[in-house]
Amino acid sequence: MSEIFGVPIQVLFGQLLIGLINGAFYAMLSLGLAVIFGLLNIINFTHGAQYMMGAFAAYFLLNKLGLNYWWALVIAPLAVGASGMVAERLMLSRLYKLDHLYGLLLTFGLALVIQGIFRNEFGSAGLPYAMPGQLSGARNLGFMFLPNYRGWVIVASLLVCFGTWFVIERTKLGAYLRAATENPAMVQSFGINVPRMVTLTYGFGVGLAGFAGVMAAPIYQVNPLMGADTIIVVFAVVVIGGMGSIMGAILTGFGLGVIEGLTKVFYPEASNTVIFVIMAIVLMIRPQGLFGSR
Amino acid sequence: MADDAYKPHASRDDAADFRYHRNAFVVMMALFLVAPTIFYPVFVMKALCFALFACAFNLLLGFGGLLSFGHAMFLGMAGYVSAHAAKVWGFPPEIAILAGTAAATLLGVLAGLLAIRRQGIYFAMITLALAQMIFFLCLQAPFTHGEDGIQAVPRGLLLGMFDLMNPYVMYYFVLAIFTAGFLLIYRIVHSPFGQVLKAIRENEPRAISLGYRTEQYKLAAFVLSAGIAGLAGATKAIVFQLASLTDVHWTMSGEVVLMTLLGGMGTIFGPVVGAFTIITMESYLAELGSWFTITQGAIFVVCVLAFRRGIMGELEAWLKRRRIG
């Protein structure tokens, strides 16, 4: 068997794949954060809890209503997004005139409430979610075995990420959105309902988190705290990438996932901390982030 | 906030503020002196440690306008170092606490140099991420004993004379540390340095244009806050004879934000009131497990939406209205 730096090539590709999968989740989650931050100027601390809600929604749809994975992929993001829009209307919308830090504190409190309620109901052991039948099994790529579901996660997340990029950067709707990010009062004066756009944008960002949650359900266990630690890593990803650009969020997400995967191969002790170390280095060299602008 | 400085009777207001602070301090000290005869001393000591922790955090948020979401790293790291020094190196308690405080101060310099490169929301995210890094380091480093923590830390003899195993001796030692830290923070806030800090909080570009090197002031505030938070953590480790991962976890960083927010950020006594409220609540809700988390979250939401001045902030606003009216 061939080796690279004393590591069997199978192991290397295996970890690289896991890294890409993690990167796909980092990309989807940081993308949602970036979209929300762009228009609302709020860092959505509830994002991790909403990702978890997506996974639980998939679990309920399958086990209570008998709706399979593909239905969940459509319904769960809509449901999570809708719950987000209600929260935005009832609570977040009262904070736009205040210091942005209050938005962070409010969403942190909401995350505690949501995670606490789910932990109360379901404990913290985690529930299994069955792999969809069409995507079980694996295929031989010649140099490694690729489990079909993992391949699907990468493809689907790329589609979602670039779809979002396309809508925001290349369509009329996206142009309104970018304009409202620059100057909401001006856009409103052209007769565009900015508050409604804000609500829908928050719903969309949250829906992305819900979508990521459904994607995660068959790989990771469905667990009330699955988003709690992930969101902190995603914050570091966001700091590294800078929230200025959509493409930046996507590239940073995938890139850091891969780096994390490689660290697991070459220096496993640091795999938990490598992203934070990279964040520290980026802050020293380029404080605004790799893709950020002041 | 900003127009306070232009009031013609600012000096009379200052004098009134000073009288209020002095009277409140006397009341607070009287309560703390008799507290261990009424309540379980370990409970009050715990609350005092958290009160000092929250006061240190408030120095940064309330007076510097910097929201750190990673203050647990200073509390927890100082706890580990102080516990290690007392147990493995056999240091006397006062030196062990100093060692823990010094470690937190050093960590504050390193974290502060990175975090002050960004502002606002980014500052919060960076401190949170750095604290999570410290959490993983503490989880993996051999000297912290991972999930077990450092247990059975000896309290030892204070200054070689006073046996800290006596709960009352321990209590008054903790009270002395709290009082020293509290007065230090009061002094910092009311010094010229504290005034510059407030100016930066209100309008940083203007402070820069007046010639202040705001980065240095922010770093100094961060390091002071980290050091005093460390003093609280180091003391807590000696009181409980334990240093564990709980104190470095992000939930602890959130808890100190909540204590400060509930008590009233930017007030002198708010963090103390907030800490005692949360710790009391915790002791009643502890058996209910995740209900405590839910309650904490709900308090966050209510405070942010409807109660942003906090308990002491509302009280002080009421006193001021009465004084003027």
Your description of this structure?
With 294 residues, chain A is mainly alpha-helical. Chain A has one domain (3-285): ABC transporter involved in vitamin B12 uptake, BtuC (Orthogonal Bundle), CATH 1.10.3470. Chain A is 70% helix and 3% strand. Chain A has a two-stranded antiparallel sheet. In chain A, strands 3-4 form a two-stranded antiparallel ribbon. In chain A, strand 3 (138-140) and strand 4 (145-147) form a beta hairpin. Chain B has 325 residues and is an all-alpha fold. Chain B has a domain at 39-260. Chain B is 74% helix and 1% strand. Chain B contains 13 helices and two strands, in the order αααααββαααααααα. In chain B, a hairpin with a 3-residue loop joins strand 1 and strand 2 (162-163). In chain B, helix 2 packs parallel to helix 6 (167-189) and helix 6 (167-189) packs antiparallel against helix 9. Chain B starts with 9 loop residues before the first helix and ends with a helix. Chain A binds chain B through residues 37, 43, 91, 94-95, 98, 100-102, 104-106, 108-117, 119-120, 229, 232-233, 235-236, 238-239, 269, 272-273, 276-277, 279-280, 283-284, 287, and chain B through 67, 69, 114, 117-118, 120-122, 124-126, 128-130, 132-133, 136-137, 139-140, 250, 254, 257, 261, 289-294, 296-301, 303-305, 308.
Briefly say what this structure is.
By secondary structure, chain A is mostly helical. Chain A contains eleven helices and four strands. The relative contact order of chain A is 0.21.
Report strand order across the widest sheet of chain B: 1-2
- Could you give the distance between the termini of chain A? 49 Å
Q: Please report the first level of CATH classification, the CATH class of chain A.
A: Mainly Alpha
Residue-averaged pLDDT of chain A: 88
Number of strands of chain A: 4
State the distance separating the first and last CA atoms of chain B: 19 Å
Main sheet record of chain B:
2 strands, antiparallel
Oligomer: heterodimer
Helix content of chain B: over 70%
Which structural class should the secondary elements of chain B be placed in? mainly alpha
Q: Count of DSSP E strands of chain B?
A: 2
Helix and strand content put the structural class of chain A at: mainly alpha
Mean pLDDT of chain B: 88
Largest interface: A-B, 41 and 40 residues
Residue ranges of chain A: pLDDT <50 for 5 or more in a row?
Answer: none
Question: Largest sheet of chain A, order of strands side by side?
Answer: 1-2
Which percent band covers the strand fraction of chain A? under 5%
